[in-house]
Amino acid sequence: MTAVTTATARASWARVAGVAAVAVTVALWASAFVAIRYADRALSPGALALGRLLVGSLALGLPVLIRREPLPGRRELPGILVCGLLWFGVYNVSLNAAENRIDAGTAAMLVNVGPILIAIFAGLILHEGFPPRLFGGCLVSFAGAVIIGVATSQHGLQQSLGAILCLVAAFAYAGGVVAQKPVLRTASPLTVTWLACTIGALSCLPYAGTLARQLGHAGSSTIVWTIYLGVAPTAIGFVTWAYALARTTAGRMGSTTYLVPPLALLFGWAFLGEAPPFLVLPGGALCLAGVALARTGGRRARGAQSGPPLR
């Protein structure tokens, strides 16, 4: 009876720890959209991306050294390179630039169209098929993006450009995940993430001079928010994601990321006082409904979305 009780207690603790890890991941990724809004008041999009990625690379590199993780082989390097350039480089710069123009909640909704794009790219590039519900989800989500675009266009050209930049970020994220997925079959997720983050930082080095100048005039709060972005959403968020993913299916874990946009809206409203245009709410709901519908299109489509987005 003692052994059975101990095993039951361990199973219960594992479930609690898994749920807690999911909650931490979702909360940190949602908070990133708000943190970017705070930090980019003093830093340009490229400088903020470089600062965040440098911090993230250092934070991820430490456990790699401690664990003595093996480096991937040469065959994996092209995928890691593409992942780093798109998912960590282009994604971050585009998202930062977008949040100079639109509120955090709207940005989170638009970027979360990415999982549909992942399924499409995976069908074309990784030959994972095109389930019928995938196309239905694409249409629903596209309708939501159009509504958000109309809502933001009523508030000027700057917000319309912000919506476009969010879609650029979503495409970059999708391309990075599809490039990363084959690599994870043979390489450590921690090492792959660290290398991709480092490559992203290297791709942003042209902004080094700008980062140095702007940090010299920035307040302590900007520095703190930049460090937060690198340590919390980038490094800790990926660790808690991996912990939870090891204890559940990729499909169930992936569905939790759709809690990020509503949380980002709430965080933006609470901490930034950003009330998005009314049409953004039904538009965002359609985006999320479309992604959810696309995810029900079979195991192959769900498998293509197993990689987490960088928030």
Task: Describe this entry's structure for a reader.
The C terminus is likely disordered. The protein has one domain. It has 14 helices and no strands. Helices cover 77% and strands 0% of the residues. The protein is globular, with a radius of gyration of 19 Å. It is mainly α.
Describe what is shown at a glance:
By secondary structure, the chain is mainly alpha-helical. The chain is built from 14 helices and no strands. The chain has one domain.
- Computed structural class: mainly alpha
Q: Could you give the order of the helices and strands?
A: HHHHHHHHHHHHHH
E-strand count:
0
Mean residue pLDDT:
79
Largest sheet: none
Radius of gyration: 19 Å
Low-confidence stretches at least 5 residues in length (pLDDT < 50)? Answer: 298-311
Q: Count structural domains.
A: 1
**Could you tell me how far the N terminus lies from the C terminus, measured between alpha carbons in angstroms?**
45 Å
Oligomeric state of the chains present here: single chain
**Residue share in β-strands:** under 5%
What is the overall shape? globular
Count of DSSP H/I helices: 14
Q: What is the helix fraction of residues, given as a range?
A: over 70%
Essential attributes:
311 residues, single chain, mainly alpha
Record the SSE blueprint.
Layout: H1 2-39, H2 45-67, H3 77-98, H4 104-111, H5 114-125, H6 132-153, H7 157-180, H8 189-203, H9 208-217, H10 220-245, H11 250-255, H12 260-272, H13 280-295, H14 299-303
